[in-house]
Amino acid sequence: MKRTGPVIIPDAAKQATDDQDKSIKPEQTVAQVKEKMKAMDLKILDQTMRIDNGRLDIPVFFSTCGHDAKAVIGTQKQMGKGATPTQAEASAIMELVERFSFFSFYQNPAHTRLATCAQIGDQAIAFEQIARSVHDDSEDLAVARKLFDTLPLRWTGAFSLTREREVLVPIDWFYAINAFNGPSAGNCVAEALCQGICEVVERHVSSIVSRERLAVPVINPNSSADRLVREMLGKYNRAGIKVVLSDFTLEMGIPTVGVLAHDPETFPQRSEIVWTAGTTPSPEKALSRALSEVAQLAGDFNTGSNYVASGLPKFSSLKEADYVIGAPGPIALSTLPDISNDNIRIEVESCVQALAERDFEVITVDTMHPELAIPAFYTIIPGAHFRERAAGTSVAMFVAKLTVQQFPVDQAIGRLLDMDRQLPGKYFVQFYLGNCHLELGDPEQALTHFSRAIDLSPHAQDAASIYSYMGVCHKDLGNYQAALEVLAKGEALDAERTDIYNLMGFCHFKRKEHEAAIKCFEQVIKLDPSSAIDYANIASNYRDMGKTDEAIRYYRLALELDPSIDFARDNLERLSGQAN
Question: What is the pTM of this model?
Fold first, then answer.
């Protein structure tokens, strides 16, 4: 297990402030990181490239993974943003650094010790923070604590910036909750920590604003004094793109600015409504970050591209966004808190202090890759919200989830049945029992547990998941119509689940309802443009409809995204021969 000493944060004077506040200039970042990667035996970076088409003239970059990085991260590319090309390229390459560093750390068993909380003892993070991490203050907490104490988890060394002491944390527990929200990398320790803390705060306030549909104050765009921010706002204006700025700070003491943008001329045919946010110690830089993020997601508002929603949901119409657009205001940007400082170390301390005053503890895991030697951390703030996480979570729910992940199926079933005796009537226990029986190849028994879970009135978001798994069971049994019926119930609860649309597409395909299948797979791609398999699925439907040219086009699109889809390549070769 990797232990950590105190996290020492040296002074970090800002040397680059035109775009984002950094300790060195972005062109130095790019040069230094590329040089370090070249010196490694591993192939981390393939190339960086600018990908925007210039309509907005706000640069967006890709960094594409080398084969070793792709094997670790599981994705092919990262995106980077900035008001200037050099900052956008630096952003893309540092995104690769933070993800490669984090996943290399997380996947290395030498960094963790598998043990129960009881075995870890007094060095473990307080159970109160475990409960807070899932917002659990229920009457079940006493029983849930006993269940948690006996669950083997992967513990690693961390440092509480709030309490200034070492602590052991179950990293797989927090990954199950936060996934890769919280990893960060920077030119120096202070820069990396500041970015990680601000990212978690950004996700927290964004989740609250969107879940509760808060009409937070609108900000007057003319109140910005930052030169590059005003230039970016001018670029949006000249392109005819409507922008609404919002104060997302929510009394957190760290400024967050939301930006909602759409193009009246190209929406909805060739663009989407983009909604995102930025958090930094400076309100001006928070706005700068959010404006460049919009450009990163929007595809210049004229390419027909679709972005994957993360911190904030997508609006499909302006009517859905009424509570944002019609919020009170405008207020001046200068009314937001400003805790910026010329020394990034002081900004980190101010962020930690602001969160401490609101009873949030900041805990960080040092994930720096030993060969890269670029500062990288995984920041954990128990109690922070994430939109992607279901509401109504609990300690017992995550114990059940991790039980299924940690134990062989037969042992997991035994532990879940014991949990059902101690905490009867919990829908998530029935859900995970259904998962186990599905893994055992018994969809009929799995359906029984999923049906019980639905009868126990789960939260709507979890109910959508249960209906999705019921659809899998019916699909496996060959009952495609029954699968479509339960999947439609899931879609009605959550219209952003790619798994539901993928399953519906498969069932329609098996019923030879090819046009309906294509519509389902197109919906997946709209939600996740990187889903290569769904381009291939569309192609297969066109193939069976006798539309060879369309099938060839979609197989090629699929293989451009993922060359490893063998059936797509085989079909493409055969169809191309027929066409020739």
Answer: 0.91
